[in-house]
């Protein structure tokens, strides 16, 4: 009889140890990733209870959130950042955990690094004290963001107490139009299902659109699952997945790789797999998308106007008006043509090599508009190295973009890169929350890296399709 | 851990939707290696921009029961958010709904997060505004919130309720109890075993 379980349930069952008195499941965790923001208190909890790390070899650490992108000379100018950096160095040394520090060429944003070194693999349970851990679901893993107390639980026991979510299959069929990218697909899904539409669910992304995506594009989609309220998102492993992993530092080698690949492919949801819910969209309906509000569900196609208050229920109107007021925008106005002050290309959503290539294609031979500050921040040192080899840094610099070192940078501005006052930023990152980019009144418009590059060049929100080479349109 | 069957205190009305973790504690206050002191910066930016923010209003300063709207705590997994609320003085949150990671973080820190209908939240919020000294009781045993002569039903995830009421909301001890089973399960997982099984 065929296995009607979907991938999520197969992987869950494999890792379930037993039911706890609370009704939750104790789940084995295959890989925990750490960074400097959410781990120091967890290590302190271990010390308080005199506990060790149970599987240090299933744990890896990097530094990303507070890393300056201009000078990484120690000690950092920011004393608090220096304290956090020292803490993760001391903690990893004391507890026997591999740390990709600033001198290590593998350093970078945790969700860029894990896949890049081959640590992220299908069928794993993966956690990190960071909500964008959902990124790793692109490989067909159950990948969850957790809180600091849970980080301590996993360090001490390599397990977590978890309630099992339901699984919603999100199907997107058809062909994506030229100039439409993975970021537009995920913003479209969040707009349709809402920022709390995914609460209680894991999302399985399926259909032609995801089948045809590269691993980088799949990571962008899964990364933003959390913005739609889903606990995690994943895509079934296929040959694209297997090919991406092969040859990477921590990937299985030789015959072991062949055995691994066979197992990975066997995990995929079969044609008659069962789901708790199914929704379906058509790729032809997806346009280059821009957020206008203060959560990632508040977006429009670049050629659409902002909604009217009357489009919303009475309960929702308060929040919508709050978003208009904060953003300084009006109901019904066009988003296209809105002036920007800052352009940010980077983050765990869109700081990978393919993102930089797409942005560089727009930047090539053009120049950033006067009065726009434009930053390109590679997601990792590996991405940076690859981009330099391809000459992308030169393209960006010639176009007037600042070329920076690897880190989270202006996605959440825990380092010196910040918006000032009520600047408007075109950003390839994942959150447009109030104050997200470091200024309490700063305003963020989320869009694809190519759209950010287009906005940087023109100085206002633009339709990237008007700047693509005719041959690609 | 102490058993939590109810929380009684005065309220703080913040009936807005989609309050995200960056608003609860802006990212720049995450530059720390302990959670101490985070309470002072709870809703820091909102407070500066809204002179009427309830967290800045002295009449609510003793409040321990936070009343909010839909999708409270969306965004980051940062435990700094509930830690900041706890250090400000919050002991329970009543909202229309919660984001999941935030909800889990609250539970593991012993903060009941319960859901009520919009209509009941509006009534409760108005009652608090009318009388900031109003005593509110969040009762996990009966799954209800009582104030004045009112009693409204609330819902809470059964495992969270169970964990709070039995004092087993810090799961670490339970997880540590099963060390042998953890090792056994680990040995059965293909990637822990060179994909041999």
Automatic annotation (TrEMBL), chain A:
Keywords: 4Fe-4S, Amino-acid biosynthesis, Branched-chain amino acid biosynthesis, Iron, Iron-sulfur, Leucine biosynthesis, Lyase, Metal-binding. [4Fe-4S] cluster binds at residues 348, 408, 411. It catalyses: (2R,3S)-3-isopropylmalate = (2S)-2-isopropylmalate. GO terms for biological process: L-leucine biosynthetic process. Pfam families: Aconitase (PF00330). The keyword Metal-binding applies. Gene3D superfamilies: Aconitase, domain 3. Pathway: Amino-acid biosynthesis; L-leucine biosynthesis; L-leucine from 3-methyl-2-oxobutanoate: step 2/4. Binds 1 [4Fe-4S] cluster per subunit. Its EC number is 4.2.1.33. It comes from the Bacteria. The keyword Lyase applies. Belongs to the aconitase/IPM isomerase family. LeuC type 1 subfamily. NCBIfam families: leuC (TIGR00170), PRK05478.1 (NF004016), PRK12466.1 (NF009116). This is 3-isopropylmalate dehydratase large subunit. The lineage of its organism: Bacteria, Pseudomonadati, Planctomycetota, Planctomycetia, Planctomycetales.
TrEMBL record, chain B:
This is 3-isopropylmalate dehydratase. Keywords: Amino-acid biosynthesis, Branched-chain amino acid biosynthesis, Leucine biosynthesis, Lyase. Catalyzes the isomerization between 2-isopropylmalate and 3-isopropylmalate, via the formation of 2-isopropylmaleate. Belongs to the LeuD family. LeuD type 1 subfamily. Heterodimer of LeuC and LeuD. Pathway: Amino-acid biosynthesis; L-leucine biosynthesis; L-leucine from 3-methyl-2-oxobutanoate: step 2/4. It comes from the Bacteria. GO terms for biological process: L-leucine biosynthetic process.
